[in-house]
Design goal:
The chain has 4 helices and 14 strands. The chain is an alpha+beta fold. It folds into 3 domains: 2-45, RNA polymerase II/Efflux pump adaptor protein, barrel-sandwich hybrid domain (OB fold (Dihydrolipoamide Acetyltransferase, E2P)), CATH 2.40.50.100; 57-121, OB fold (Dihydrolipoamide Acetyltransferase, E2P) (Beta Barrel), CATH 2.40.50; 125-199, Ribosomal Protein S8, Chain: A, domain 1.
């Protein structure tokens, strides 16, 4: 049975490697408010901040560009740094891109995210979602996002930083489905509910 926990509440009397938790005295405690399923040993935070990791796929907007060096807004406390001095790709302020995290450098309290393999995304729409719900939107082995793409015939790129780019197909239906996944991420049978929603076009 799932229950709501607050920051500082014990999730398990055993040490568990779960994001948004800490381990003290061999026990696991929540660092944010969320929902814990003791039977499954899972924890779903209600809110979360993206913590960049190597090879994370991200979607962002070019904030500044000068001499082949772009600063990218990643909808987080961290900015992305993209160096294109030796690339044929040309970016302008306001361009939407997808890229991967190549490195995360910490200098004192400042964090710089080095980006690589950028691709410009033309047109479309951005949707900002709760970072904690991104894994549910993608689904295990990408089952949920594949279902969304097939059911809406939309081009959808999901960034681990909580930014989603959508274009073509039934974008409005895709947005409705994604919002439903966000709101009901903790419920069972969600995949079947989304399939039914996508079938009602």
């Amino acid at each position: 049975m799932a229950k709501i926990v607050l920051p500082g509440d014990m999730i398990s009397d055993k040490p568990l490697s779960i994001q948004n938790t800490i381990i003290e005295g061999g026990k696991t405690y929540a660092t944010v408010m969320g929902l814990v399923d003791e039977a499954k040993g899972s924890f779903i935070p209600f809110e979360s901040v993206w913590h960049p990791k190597m090879d994370d796929q991200v979607v962002g907007v070019v904030e500044t560009e000068r001499n082949g060096v772009s600063i990218v807004d990643l909808n987080s406390p961290f900015k992305g740094l993209l160096i294109l001095k030796h690339s044929t790709l040309e970016l302008r302020v306001g361009d939407i891109i997808e890229a991967i995290v190549m490195a995360v450098k910490r200098e004192s309290e400042r964090v710089m995210i080095m980006l690589a393999r950028p691709k410009r995304l033309y047109g479309g729409r951005l949707l900002f979602v709760n970072v904690a719900k991104v894994p549910r939107i993608i689904g295990r082995e990408s089952t949920m996002i594949t279902q969304l793409i097939r059911g809406t015939k939309s081009n959808i790129q999901v960034g681990m930083n909580g930014v989603i780019w959508l274009k073509d197909g039934n974008v409005e239906l895709a947005v409705t489905a994604i919002n439903k996944i966000q709101e009901e991420a903790h419920t069972s049978g969600l995949t079947e509910q989304i399939a039914k929603l996508l079938g009602a076009k």
